[in-house]
Amino acid sequence: MLKGTSACAGCSSSLSLRYVLKGAGPDTVLVIPASCSSVIQGIYPNTALNIPVYNIAFAAAAACASGMSNAFRAVGKKTNVIVYAGDGGTLDIGIQSMSGAFERGTDFLYICYDNEEYGNTGMQRSGSTPLGARTTTTPAGKTDEKKDIDAIITAHDPPYLATACSAYPQDLFKKVKKALAIRGPAFIHILVPCPSGWRFPPEKTIEIGRLAVKSGMWILYEREYGRLAISSPSKAAMKNPIPLENYLAPQGRFAGISPKALDILKQRITQKIQRLTEEEKGIC
Amino acid sequence: MLKGTSACAGCSSSLSLRYVLKGAGPDTVLVIPASCSSVIQGIYPNTALNIPVYNIAFAAAAACASGMSNAFRAVGKKTNVIVYAGDGGTLDIGIQSMSGAFERGTDFLYICYDNEEYGNTGMQRSGSTPLGARTTTTPAGKTDEKKDIDAIITAHDPPYLATACSAYPQDLFKKVKKALAIRGPAFIHILVPCPSGWRFPPEKTIEIGRLAVKSGMWILYEREYGRLAISSPSKAAMKNPIPLENYLAPQGRFAGISPKALDILKQRITQKIQRLTEEEKGIC
Amino acid sequence: MLMVATGNRAVAEAVREAKPVVIAAYPITPQTGIVEQIAEYVSHGVLLSRYIPVESEHSAMAACIGASATGARTFTATSSQGLLYMHEMTNWAAGARLPVVMANVNRALGPGWNIWAEHTDAIQERDTGWLQVYTGTVQEAYDTTLMAFCIAEHNDVLLPVMVNLDGFLLSHDMQPLETVDCGDFIPPLHLPHAIDPQNPIAYGPLTGPDQYYKFRWDIERSMRDSVNVIGQTQAEFARRFGRKYGFTDDYRCDDADAVVVSLGTLGKEAEVAIDALRSEGIKAGSMRVRWLRPFPKLDLAGREVVVIDRDYSFGFGGVLAHEIKAKNHIDVCSVIAGLGGQEVTYDDIAGFIKNRRIGEESWFGVTPGV
Amino acid sequence: MLMVATGNRAVAEAVREAKPVVIAAYPITPQTGIVEQIAEYVSHGVLLSRYIPVESEHSAMAACIGASATGARTFTATSSQGLLYMHEMTNWAAGARLPVVMANVNRALGPGWNIWAEHTDAIQERDTGWLQVYTGTVQEAYDTTLMAFCIAEHNDVLLPVMVNLDGFLLSHDMQPLETVDCGDFIPPLHLPHAIDPQNPIAYGPLTGPDQYYKFRWDIERSMRDSVNVIGQTQAEFARRFGRKYGFTDDYRCDDADAVVVSLGTLGKEAEVAIDALRSEGIKAGSMRVRWLRPFPKLDLAGREVVVIDRDYSFGFGGVLAHEIKAKNHIDVCSVIAGLGGQEVTYDDIAGFIKNRRIGEESWFGVTPGV
Amino acid sequence: MSGRARLALSKPTTGAAGRTGSWRVFRPVIDTEKCNQCGLCQMYCPDAAIDEELNVDLNFCKGCGICANECPKKAIEMVREET
Amino acid sequence: MSGRARLALSKPTTGAAGRTGSWRVFRPVIDTEKCNQCGLCQMYCPDAAIDEELNVDLNFCKGCGICANECPKKAIEMVREET
Amino acid sequence: MFEVRIHSRGGEGGVTAARLLAIAAIRDGKYASACPFYGAERRGAPVVSFVRIDDRPVRVYSQIRTPDLVVVLDASLVGVVDVLSGLKAGGTILINSAHTREFAGYRTCSVDLTGIALRENLIMAGSPILDTSVLGALARIGIISQNSAKKAITEVFTDERNVRAADAAYREVVI
Amino acid sequence: MFEVRIHSRGGEGGVTAARLLAIAAIRDGKYASACPFYGAERRGAPVVSFVRIDDRPVRVYSQIRTPDLVVVLDASLVGVVDVLSGLKAGGTILINSAHTREFAGYRTCSVDLTGIALRENLIMAGSPILDTSVLGALARIGIISQNSAKKAITEVFTDERNVRAADAAYREVVI
Lengths: 284, 284, 370, 370, 83, 83, 175, 175
Ligand SMILES: Cc1ncc(C[n+]2csc(CCOP(=O)(O)OP(=O)(O)O)c2C)c(N)n1
Ligand SMILES: Cc1ncc(C[n+]2csc(CCOP(=O)(O)OP(=O)(O)O)c2C)c(N)n1
Ligand code: SF4
Ligand code: SF4
Ligand code: SF4
Ligand code: SF4
Ligand code: SF4
Ligand code: SF4
Ligand SMILES: [Mg+2]
Ligand SMILES: [Mg+2]
Fold this sequence. Notes:
The complex is a heterooctamer, with 2 copies of chain A, 2 copies of chain C, 2 copies of chain E and 2 copies of chain G. By secondary structure, chain A is α/β, with parallel strands linked by helices. Chain A has 12 helices and 9 strands. Chain A has helices at about 10-25, 35-40, 60-75, 90, 95-105, 150-155, 170-180, 195-200, 205-215, 230-240, 245-250, 260-284, and strands at about 30-35, 45, 55, 80-85, 110-115, 160-165, 185-190, 220-225, 225-230. Chain A has an 8-stranded mixed beta sheet with strand order 3-1-4-5-7-6-8-9, with helices on both faces. In chain A, a hairpin with a 2-residue loop joins strand 8 and strand 9 (about 225-230). The N and C termini of chain A lie far apart (about 40 Å). By secondary structure, chain C is an alpha/beta fold. Helices cover about 35% and strands about 20% of the residues of chain C. Chain C is globular and about 65 Å long. Chain E is of the alpha+beta class. In chain E, strands 2-3 form a two-stranded antiparallel sheet. At the C-H interface, strand 1, strand 8 and helix 9 of C face helix 1 and strand 2 of H. Strand 3 of chain A pairs parallel with strand 9 of chain D. One magnesium ion (MG) binds near residues 87 and 126 of chain B.
């Protein structure tokens, strides 16, 4: 990725993209649906990305990548086909094409960078917005819970699925490499704290990501051919998570969150830690 | 349901619909996307259904029902809003609107009657078609596995989810009643053997459904507020499933299934039985 | 109340006044302001609607359809890709005879991505059975949205209405806005075919070749009847609130030798061009088409006509220009200008009029063959 | 080889001959036969394409776009609701300048559900930058599908082509079909802007107001250039395989006083009507429009023209009738007939011609005001 | 619902798809001797063509044979229709 | 890729969105005394504005302050830009 | 132009019969078209197909109103649909029936195609297949040559039994 | 018609400043329109807004090419964009700057809005907010009345500090 993008200062989606590109290497095509990334890449006639990028309609990324992957494979090309889509383009409007591409066993890597909002249109609620978070369409805090896209993808039984976070770029880098080494559909879900939408000062971007992991609100793991492995930053965090409030407090979007919502968020963390811990044990 | 529909002789989707209507009672609106059910209900100016039925585009059932439910609730009406959709309208083209409606906690019942194919257009592959089954678009047998919609919905954590089968109409009837008694989104997934598409004689419709359950290829259960309960017909079957071949052999669509596909199907059954058994134990 | 508002805000204010029961919408630039403002109203209890934060525009329209089918007033808003994505459902809403009101913020179509004003998004919907109106000022966007509910829900119409406003140019322009207390101006909606849980009816079932066309004809019949309803509604609006609207907004046309016809903000900008031309002694006028569906009778006889299309039908031509040709049996000078937010100033428009060549088409900024 | 085939089968046979690299399609009545036949070919290894069984039409077109962007030949087929559902992506394919070939089996739009022939589905796509051709016989569906690949992929065009066939009437009609060995008739596809993994380029990025319209103009420029390409391709096809096609299919028009203009099978049925009228001494002819985009020059001067529209633009009129009016500066007698598979016989068509009233519109089977 | 029909609205009608009994090739005949009134045939009939009193409505029975197949008493025989 | 441009195709360019360094209000200044060369600032800079030798490219540094915030040695100070 | 209307039920092969008839006519050197009229019916519902045979290409797509020949593949349809509707005076009706039938004013031919199918065990999804055997009867009536009838069947089906069934029908049709 | 162009960066409040100016003009009994020119830029990128003030309704939507007044909310934009572009001869330029500036041929006014914002602690997401204070300066220059400037601010913001900031700017602007 070249310097001088139109991403907000402190944007961790750009940071992630840097490491995705690093991990992917040269023989790669990126498919990008409508999202912050369609803007971050630059305006015609210039782009900040130095691999081919195919821009596509919001709902269509996985299907487009399906066609592309099949066309490359048909002529014997191994080119990596990577979707780099936001949470809206994955969990909401894009879920149909994504689900279909996974069902058909498409040979591609689908990356969802999750800023828990529609960033590009100015921070509206998405299916990925957590309970209690304020967005411009949930000015009093979201009343529905975050959609569990990882469980949804897991239900499609892909050979590789991982979570990552922009605050741990090396971990992300390794996961991208691993995902691309595997044949068939792979999925990486990256939490990317967004200073503009989450309302925290841009210099806190990494810190917030770390707090997400340390509080257990975000857990880093991979599931390879169904086998779960908790990634090291989360190993410690899961044993002894910091108080969730430490993660929420610096973020304007959680200001005034109701005790009830807070409680549910905490419960979910406990449940998720338990579930993943058991799953990891259960199979090893 | 009135007599004289245009369903094929021996159609178990019509049989299911009979029991859905019975279970739902009078204050009910049915939302039906493009599917066999859009035809079964009858041609203008006649219909075989004696409650209001709203026909809607293929991809749009859950969203339409969302709007309907909200409009009824806004004026204080408790009218049951039930989607009666095929597997294609649920797992494939309809998954976006369905997933959204579940995420938003819509107060409705979504029923997917699963004939494991696009019946209305003449038995093409759907995401729900099992591995190895021949359809008109998979003339050599499907090479991808059946999408696990129950796991996908479970990931949305609805208050109620159940599986059913047309061969057990009383069980279905009870589940419909229970689902409608619960506030928020409920899901019932009904396996409906289709003589025309699965290529077995129409008189075997019930038998085939029973074999599906007895072989463990289809497991009857409900999950109420996250608590799993295996339904009685499957309790026995899970302990001592009959050979899968007994289920497959009478069906033309599985003629000549590859040993590899057969093997995977069997593995999946074992895994699923194990997973559900553990889940049931784990939480009780 | 006199405030300063964007076009988006104006639409949201009108919706607040019209009090739909259900609003389902999906954000998209440059419409987002409408959705956000409505979410704000709803969350503050200023508006008692149910706001459904759907996961796509296809679902937005489907949700409006489901709600409207019960007899509830509904509203949505979209733009560009969003409008394209709901195309199946816009057709459905019209066929189901549901008076959904939608604001569409006109924007160009990708690829390349372009978020600026163009009418092609709405123009591609002109066959669907929706009434379409294009607005030129913030006040008009407000007033027209209010009237849209009256018209859509009128028993002689029962068809959805799309209120168009130019992306950014109008959606984000801040202008004086006089809001009204709408009182009983919009009568309660009584949908004759509302779902009644006690009355078993199957809506929109399979309809055979010897029946189907009759329902299509009924759509067209209602379209034709809507001409009166629009006229009455605009007259009633003028009576109550003092602002007059027609099927077109004519500016100094009466004695004009040349008339420029256009949609949306171009038609307001054109007025400035007309003033300039008039001061040069050129007798020109501007006719801004408000209602594109039903297509209005245009009084163009005896004038040379320049049509500016901020849209295009590839392999054919500017849509407004050709619809005028076909309906008015005249030839025109067709100018394609403003695509994708291309800047078109009043000077440019004055130039179009001065340099008009009847029977020819030109693309503003393009030298053919290059 | 002489066989008996349905229109659907003919399209599948042509696709087999054209050997696309990737086919992505979704079933819908009455197009299903195409998809099923192709799946059969692929599964038997008769056709070495990759067939992607997508989960919707939006995805079908998206997959074709992704594949085509790599420079691969692609094909899809749809109908009615499916075409509406992919509307966003048909626009995208054209804007991305990808020579996707699609068969569309014309069918009416819901609600009520109706699976029979009507052209409104494709007509609503006429602005998108797709070339559109309508066929009238099984043989023509086959031949035209072959030619569609040549035309779409031609360097002067590089736009997608939609081959239309009337639902059931043509898609399911079984007629003699002479298949060909197409040899090098369709040259290999060399997409100048194919993705090259070694060449970092961002496709279709955000494009500003001062650039966007230039790319739109290039679509139109290619549309205009396609006229030559179509002419050449049709000539070359005639040279190689002996069957001649034009922009229109004219039947006994030369000395006709009255000409009936229509699309698809209606135009073949009209020939029978013409024979009957001629035998009564009435000098009538039939002009069946094949290419609707680019819109062809029609030689209609001096004749009375009856246009049959199996489509409608509500609040406006029959689309073909009005496009002819606008382009040919004539008035016509507009007949709306055949919607939703409404039966239209040659006797009916003879009646339309005999009872024509230039300047009027009538709906077949409808008495207005009733 | 008065006034003109604006869209296709269907009303409940027995035989919405016609007298579907005519589709039948084989007809179920219940042997009341063998029958034990268990009601399974009624329960499983997809076309609701058997009523509580175990009368088969031959106007609408499509002859699928499910009732015969499921009858625990083998009390139903499928008999070829005369043509 | 030769010939006329049929669709918008962008080429890689440094500063695709202009000299984004001008967005900055505060500028990172590295105190080479305190710095231990750990590279974390470089690793975390979303705009890749710090190179391996720890030079900040002020043409493109947006001044987000992440580097300063993450520096374990507190070796980076954010200094208000002159206007 | 010789116009044929075929009455059958979904699943019985009426559409295929029409197709085979068109192929046979073409193999006889004529032009033909076959066109099923599709409702959205499922298996078992009455359907109708049309075949036109002519010396020049067929250009008509509308339904046949006044057939020269009516074929009834399922005798139970008589009474359910008006199979004689529009049949030209003196026209022919061919009916699948175990016993001979009489339709006043028309030339009536009957043949027990169902019996033949059951004999040859030509059954699919519970229904007897009648689409190939009927060609034999049509050849006997003189609509197509027996040779072309066979050709048509073998072009479409590999199973020998189809030809045998057609031969049987050729022999057994009662004119 | 009096035409104003405002230069700022995304997030600094240029659009709101334009809006407030239009409100104030309307409260002065005039007609006005304010129109940001939107790119798809994110926070931090240069943006430009336009305000037109007139005695009759404004009907122009195209950009202002020859402004009467240019407002520069972010002095760092000065070499980055041509802030003087088209400014009418003798026109005014108001710039947010801690020290006075000179633009030859124009009436130059400067005011340290950033300083005022930092003093009043008007900071959002790390950026100082300038949109309210600038109204004070504009009032002082005479584009709007001081009264209407205050009205506009209080119509939109409840926070007292905004009015204080505007007052400060009114006092401190160097003309
Ligand atoms: C069909 C359609 N609807 C809406 C939009 C407008 N839109 C563009 S990007 C976007 C939000 C994207 O959100 P997400 O996928 O989370 O990515 P982010 O912007 O957060 O990076 C929206 C709503 C669109 N381009 N297309
Ligand atoms: C957008 C769209 N695409 C395709 C179709 C055609 N279509 C109608 S029903 C159907 C299959 C339905 O399958 P399923 O949902 O499984 O229901 P079933 O027919 O099996 O009962 C299809 C492909 C359509 N109506 N709309
Ligand atoms: S809105 Fe958030 S995700 Fe989007 S560019 Fe800005 S910081 Fe990055
Ligand atoms: S195709 Fe199958 S599901 Fe559909 S009506 Fe026939 S039997 Fe029932
Ligand atoms: S044969 Fe089938 S339709 Fe007839 S009564 Fe028995 S179960 Fe019902
Ligand atoms: S299933 Fe058999 S035994 Fe039971 S009621 Fe029916 S006929 Fe009698
Ligand atoms: S301030 Fe931000 S953009 Fe500048 S070098 Fe540091 S991390 Fe990079
Ligand atoms: S983070 Fe700090 S210590 Fe590490 S290299 Fe950067 S300046 Fe030096
Ligand atoms: Mg996002
Ligand atoms: Mg199905």
